[in-house]
Amino acid sequence: MPMMNLQTLSLRALLFLGLWHSGRRSLASAPQLQDQPKRIAVVGAGIGGTAAAYFLRQEFGAGVKIDVFEPDTAGGRLATVKFGEHEYETGGSVIHPLNLHMKHFIEKLGIPQRKDVPTKMAIFDGKELVFEESDWFIINFLRILWRYGFNFLRMQMWVESILDKFMRIYQYQQYGYSFSSVERLLHAMGGDSFLTLMNQTLEETMRAKGFSQVFLNEIVVPITRVNYGQSVRINGFVGAVSLAGADSGLWAVDGGNKRVCTGLLYHSKSELISARVTSISIKDRPSKRGISTSFYEVNYVGESGSAHALYDIVVIATPLHQGTSDILFSGFSPPIPSHYPGRYHQTVSTLVHGLLNVSYLGTSEPASDFTVSDILTMESKGSIINSLSSLDPVHIPAAYKRPPTDQPKVWKVFSPQPLSQEQLQDMFLSYDLVSKTPWLAYPAYRPPQRKTPPFILHDRMYYLNAVEWAASAMEMSAISARNVALLAHHRWHQQVGKIDQEDLHTRLRGEL
Ligand SMILES: Cc1cc2nc3c(=O)[nH]c(=O)nc-3n(C[C@H](O)[C@H](O)[C@H](O)COP(=O)(O)OP(=O)(O)OC[C@H]3O[C@@H](n4cnc5c(N)ncnc54)[C@H](O)[C@@H]3O)c2cc1C
Ligand SMILES: *[C@@H]1O[C@H](CO)[C@@H](O)[C@H](O)[C@H]1NC(C)=O
Ligand SMILES: *[C@@H]1O[C@H](CO)[C@@H](O)[C@H](O)[C@H]1NC(C)=O
Predict the structure, then answer these.
(1) Domain containing 18: what range?
(2) Residue 251 counted as domain residue
(3) Pocket, ligand 2, Cβ cutoff 6 A
(4) Into how many domains does the chain fold?
(5) CATH code for the domain of 296
(6) How many angstroms is it from 468 CA to the middle of ligand 3?
(7) Least C-beta-crowded within 10 Å: which of 6, 69, 217, 464?
């Protein structure tokens, strides 16, 4: 083995060297203070709820019954539509190469990554394309250097440094540590600097670091617009997540990202109940020994009418906000609201099969020469779209080649409002298929964040989507799912030493 100082090897490198798979911590020494729970309810079968089912099974073992409630198809904001012969993603689409939970899931489930199709990006200012990526790396490099100096390189270094701290969460979770609030989770990863990021706008954060306004307007804004439909007034943490989403090596799941959700449901041996949860209340039942135990009564409505069931533990895996869910919590003190303050931002995802009007982008290039696949947009008066991308199917057939722009093909447009027929007719010379999905996509971020919703709603009831107020992404829901499963386990067994530990980063350094 070559000489190598382990301390200087980054955690990331170690995770790649396979530590990820070897480090299942031993549960054998855990004192069994109480019986295992018998029944657990998970509300929502998006990536958050299904990952929670997976991690809850891991924590509590084979004996517990896990029910997952979902009125629609499993996947939630991961969804596909069939368009002609192929299926396409309409919701969450790309995954970062360092999203280790998502990676772990597809490996565990034996689902391959989607085959890569090269992309080419351009930036549209509402009138014309102000930047167009070239096929030549050196040309891109020189253009960027010419226009933005070292802003670009410094941005990559800044995002990298945040990602390095972010990656600590995987080690903490590997060792079974959990956190009782979003703030504590963020603090464990990146200390006070992460809390500050959450409380400042991305613009304030980057301006304070010396990034130029031109760079923000022309590069950073287009990236936050395509990823979160919002400007650089989002918080600095989700801003950094968004910028990481412009890294290279992004991937997707072959056959559609939502396959992970159905796969996790199956793997976790939980039962999918096709019903909408309407209310949850607390019920006391006398137990055998005469002591009364409390249960959560989950009331739900499915195709065969309404019903209810009792659970020891409940995990809410849907946003509790206006328009996203409507669950009544009754009999709790302090009361639990159906909707927390703050709203979700609308992004309409429109798929169009048609012939693009390249003049709409202010270019005089003939369509046959136009090879850009992803058009990001700057903020401009009267701009109606956030992005426009040539879309490839969720499964890339052998010998697939993306059709050229002078042929009809599938485009995906993100916009804050539904596009009218006139607007579509302006953007496309002709089209024959259109599908519109209006998403309440992610929080409308307005830092400073007064108070993030809690992970712990009640004694044994947890709320996974609180994490979205730091940043909304598949991996964030997966991290939150594991955190909530660990939290539920440790609180059930009163293992307080595994909750909210300070200074884990220094303490675990020796463990590597
Ligand atoms: C257009 C768009 C693009 C995105 N792009 C990306 C991307 O490229 N990369 C990325 O990582 N993330 C992306 N995201 C974000 C990502 O999709 C979400 O963060 C993630 O999917 C959230 O998963 P979740 O399981 O926490 O919530 P959801 O997927 O919203 O799941 C909640 C589930 O709960 C169900 N539910 C609601 N109410 C009830 C009830 N009363 N009873 C029972 N069930 C209920 C819902 O039907 C839903 O299925 C994007 C999102 C959108 C909308
Ligand atoms: C194409 O876009 C240009 C610029 O927006 C517009 O003037 C023109 O009418 C469009 N063409 C068609 C056929 O809609
Ligand atoms: C963020 O700022 C608000 C208001 O300025 C404050 O109440 C809150 O404690 C801050 N949160 C963090 C995590 O620093």
Answers:
(1) 6-75+257-342+451-511
(2) no
(3) 357, 359-360, 425-426, 429
(4) 1
(5) 3.50.50.60
(6) 17
(7) 6
